[in-house]
Amino acid sequence: MVRYHLFTKMVLLIVIMLIPVVLLYSYSNKMTTNVVVSELNRSSSNQLAFFQSQVNTSIEELSSWPIILIHDPDIESFEQQDLESEYLNLDLINHVKRIQNKLSIQESSSNWRSSLSLYSASMKRMITENDSRTYDNKELDNANLPGWQVKKVTTGNEERYLFSWYTASPYSARDVVENARSIIKLEFDSTNIQDMLDKFKSNGRRDPFYYIPGTGTIYNRTADIDRSTELLKQLDFTEIKDVDYRTIELGKEVYSVHTVMSPITGWYLIDYIPLTDVLAPIKNSNRLFYGAVACLLFMSFLAAYLLYVQVQVPVRDLMHGFQRLKIGDYSVRLEPKGRNEFSFLSERFNSMVIQIQELFEHVYLEQIQVREARLKQLQSQINPHFFYNCFSYITSMAKLGKTDAVVAMSHNLSRYYRYTTRQEKDLVPMKEEIAFVISYLKIQKMRMSRLDYVMEIPEEMMELLVPPLVLQPLIENAVIHGIERSADASFIRVSGFEDEGRLCLQVEDDGLGMNEEAMRLLQDQLTRPMDEHSGCGLWNVNQRVQLRYGERSYLTFGRSPMGGLKATIYIDNIKKG
């Protein structure tokens, strides 16, 4: 199972808490944006349709003038006149002036700049507000076409469009130019529409303009023509309805394009709004919100990190210190950081460990001193008895005149006591311990001639450092309890080998040996405190190797293949001298 520390848990909790807030805000923002865009499109379409209706009303009003004038009595009577000469008589001149006056009144009734022209087929005269002249039939080429006629006119660098409307009398004439008696022509140019577009744009619109495929475009006077041209390239007018809006991307900008078609002229009124500008406050609000969330997240992470550093890390270090203390590592120390409760705990922990370490070292030294004192006491108890036996042997040999035996005993005895009395080192090379043991065995062999022994210690082990007097108690035990008690026993073997990284020193004899129960009791005595019934030498050897080398070092017993007892010392972490 994955375990998370406090910092990770706090960060996950903060993120989990912020996720619903961000999701809810994102959903709310999306709904708000959709509502704003929808209302904006609806409002823009309504305003565009209203403006289109105003333009259509003005055009319909203009188109009604010829119908009204064609039924005027002066114009109807003028249709019946025939021009007998090239010049007009006084009555006709007065008649023309009345018609010109009515044309002027009609033109001045609208804010649009327009012109009315009366063409009389019988008189071959064209009458306007300020002129009366003959005309050519080529001027009426578009009179046979229905609806509004549009012609593009270029004056210098300025382009404009002329809108023309023809009304003939009688209405039933199929070929207007040939059969009509009178034709009234209404004409206005696109500057009137530009005026309305400028006024419409000043009311807050972006850039309105008129467009009809195949004819051209009427821009307002401050239009962004390049931008409008780019928009027109992306519009498919075969798919556009009478009232329509759609979204178009130009570079990095997104535009909402609105179109309304005029049923009278067939022209499309087009306006576009950059959604980027409209939605800029919402995007700014979004950036502000997400920036605030990011700052809050950063501050939360910082607070979590500070809490982790100031609380979790000291607690973790304290727990780690107690774990090391539990396994006996009294060198552990905590580094106090800052001036807070945890620095106080760290200082008290260090003080506690120092006191515990000093106490353990004091107790350990006392134990070592006690063991050494017991060892010396043991030596003082053993040495006099052994000493008396040796001098008894020397006395007997001297009485018998065996000077060689006296010299050999004296020589080996001096080496024996020199090793025991002058031993100031805690560890000695294996070769010195073996030489001491051989001296002891030679002394015993002089007393007991049947005693024989063998040393099977590899040469590479001779430089290893071992505690002094660690083998002698085992050999003494084999001599006294194994060889002396059995008349048939005579052989002792001392061997050394390596087992699982430990040095093994083994002493075997061919004496009486011990049964399983006796060996178990002897082994148990080594683990209990020493009493008057315990053997001092073997217990002391076991205690010394365990205190110095640890739990993997000890003395154990078993049956020897030679029939007697086998004593084995295991020493771990042995060093070479």
Number of helices: 14
What composes the largest sheet? 6 strands, antiparallel
Which segments are poorly predicted (pLDDT under 50) over 5 or more consecutive residues? none
Structural class by sheet pairing and helices:
alpha+beta
Helix content: 40-55%
Mean pLDDT: 82
Strand order of the largest sheet: 3-2-1-6-5-4
Approximate shape: rod-shaped
Secondary structure: number of strands:
19
Q: Which tags fit this structure?
A:
six-stranded antiparallel β-sheet, 577 residues, 53% helix, five-stranded antiparallel β-sheet, rod-shaped, 19 strands, alpha+beta
Account of the protein in words:
The chain is an alpha+beta fold and 577 residues long. Helix 9 runs antiparallel to helix 10 and helix 10 runs antiparallel to helix 11.
Protein topology:
Elements: H1 6-70, H2 73-79, H3 90-108, E1 114-120, E2 125-127, E3 132-134, E4 149-155, E5 158-169, H4 176-179, E6 182-189, H5 191-202, E7 209-212, E8 216-219, H6 225-234, E9 243-250, E10 253-261, E11 268-274, H7 275-278, H8 280-326, H9 341-400, H10 403-421, E12 428-429, H11 430-447, E13 452-456, E14 464-466, H12 472-483, E15 491-499, E16 502-509, H13 516-527, H14 536-549, E17 554-559, E18 565-571, E19 575-576
Parallel strand pairs: 13-15
Antiparallel strand pairs: 1-2, 1-6, 2-3, 4-5, 5-6, 7-8, 7-11, 9-10, 10-11, 12-14, 14-19, 15-16, 16-18, 17-18
Helix pairs in contact: 1-8, 8-9, 9-10, 9-14, 10-11
